[in-house]
């Protein structure tokens, strides 16, 4: 029973009520941590009754204080908006939280996919206050304030500046009541590894398939392997290879195997997920909710980098073309099946596109 006494401790302000932001705010509130959720004014009423969360163990609705701007008392701002909205969100943070000459002010944690978030945010927020996290949580939100928490995972946090491990651990500790939090000294390297996996977000958006559906056929798995193989080749050529840790080596091994073995590896991932709720990629969620997607910063980044390195990336290019057509309403035939993406990539390879 609520006592009406606000929770004690540093206030965390979560900016963005989508799958990850809404989930973090709900879990922090459920754990008794001081938290508020910042959403657009038009969405306020949807969140006032709480955030509905469905997990493999059941469902709950958690009330979270909602606002249209962060409180001045907030010590940590968790920016959970998508990449298309990041610059505007950071500009609003800079306007609402003026800093002293020493850069004092709330710490800012970025949760975006891709590799550009820290650079974009640094235009508005002093580097000593900036952190980023690689999100390894399976969460889906197809409607405001309604979230399915499919895959419990972790946040891997790092500071924008080196030598701030103690500060990073403090930030991680503020979120630890909600989810597992780990700290890395090389968050940009971790982002590069996550980018390779996130190339499947574009495949999910282009095809309209959940991850379970994508991995249910050989053609779907070949498409997944294909975009990641292209991505790894381009990152290697640009000297942006993911760090040589256990996860990176495992993924590199799978991508280097012949299709028959690589397909077997990803089928094991599907088996592990088959009892879970459907996993929608974040890019597909954006399309369903008619919001701008992150395709420009995911598969689109690989296409641009491939052009710079003179390496053909026809499958990632086909994915970008398909998603952009859907976003602009030009996808007259709707979603594109994996076999069609592979065929388009083969055509592009033959005529030298990329």
* Integer count of domains: 2
Strand tally: 10
> For the CA atoms, what is the radius of gyration?
20 Å
Instruction: Give the helix tally.
Output: 14
User: Helix fraction?
Assistant: 40-55%
CATH architecture tag of the largest domain:
3-Layer(aba) Sandwich
Strand content: 15-25%
Structure, briefly:
With 354 residues, this protein is an alpha/beta fold.
Task: Describe the fold and architecture.
- There is one protein chain.
- The protein has 354 residues and is an alpha/beta fold.
- It has helices spanning 19-30, 44-48, 86-96, 117-121, 165-175, 187-207, 211-214, 218-237, 246-256, 259-273, 282-288, 299-309, 314-327, 338-350; strands at 12-15, 35-38, 51-55, 58-62, 66-67, 76-79, 107-110, 130-143, 146-159, 180-183.
- α3 links the parallel β6 and β7 (107-110).
- It is globular, with a radius of gyration of 20 Å.
Please give the structural blueprint:
Blueprint: E1 12-15, H1 19-30, E2 35-38, H2 44-48, E3 51-55, E4 58-62, E5 66-67, E6 76-79, H3 86-96, E7 107-110, H4 117-121, E8 130-143, E9 146-159, H5 165-175, E10 180-183, H6 187-207, H7 211-214, H8 218-237, H9 246-256, H10 259-273, H11 282-288, H12 299-309, H13 314-327, H14 338-350
Parallel strand pairs: 1-2, 1-6, 2-5, 3-9, 6-7, 7-8, 9-10
Antiparallel strand pairs: 3-4, 8-9
Features:
single chain, 354 residues, alpha/beta, Rossmann fold, N-(1-d-carboxylethyl)-l-norvaline Dehydrogenase, domain 2, 2 domains, ten-stranded mixed sheet, 17% strand, globular
């Amino acid at each position: 029973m609520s006592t009406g006494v606000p929770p004690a401790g540093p206030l965390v302000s979560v900016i963005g009520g989508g799958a990850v932001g809404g989930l973090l705010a709900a879990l922090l509130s459920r754990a008794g941590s001081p938290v508020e959720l910042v959403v657009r004014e038009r969405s306020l009423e949807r969140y006032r009754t709480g955030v509905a969360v469905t997990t493999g163990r059941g469902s709950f609705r958690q009330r979270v204080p909602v606002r249209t701007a962060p409180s001045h008392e907030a010590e940590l701002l968790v920016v959970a908006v998508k990449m298309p909205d990041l610059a505007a969100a950071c500009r609003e943070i800079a306007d609402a939280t003026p800093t002293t000459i020493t850069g004092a002010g709330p710490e800012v944690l970025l949760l975006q996919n891709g590799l550009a978030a820290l650079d974009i945010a640094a235009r508005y927020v002093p580097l000593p206050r900036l952190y980023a996290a690689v999100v390894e949580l399976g969460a889906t939100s197809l409607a405001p304030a309604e979230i399915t928490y499919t895959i419990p995972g972790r946040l891997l946090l790092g500071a924008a500046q080196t030598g701030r491990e103690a500060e990073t651990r403090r930030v991680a500790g503020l979120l630890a009541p909600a989810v597992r939090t780990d700290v890395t000294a090389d968050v940009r390297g971790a982002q590069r590894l996550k980018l390779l996996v996130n190339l499947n977000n574009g495949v999910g958006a282009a095809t309209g398939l959940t991850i379970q559906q994508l991995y249910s056929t050989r053609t779907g798995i070949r498409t997944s392997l294909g975009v990641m193989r292209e991505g790894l080749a381009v990152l290697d050529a640009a000297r942006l290879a993911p760090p040589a840790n256990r996860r990176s080596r495992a993924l590199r091994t799978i991508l280097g195997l012949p299709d028959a073995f690589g397909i077997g590896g990803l089928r094991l991932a599907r088996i592990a997920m088959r009892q879970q709720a459907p996993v929608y990629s974040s890019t597909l969620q954006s399309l369903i909710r008619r919001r701008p997607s992150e395709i420009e910063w995911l598969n689109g980044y690989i296409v641009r980098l491939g052009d710079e390195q003179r390496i053909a990336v026809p499958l990632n290019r086909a994915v970008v073309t398909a998603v952009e057509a859907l976003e602009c309403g030009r996808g007259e035939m709707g979603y594109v099946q994996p076999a069609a993406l592979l065929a388009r990539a083969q055509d592009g390879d033959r005529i030298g596109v990329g």
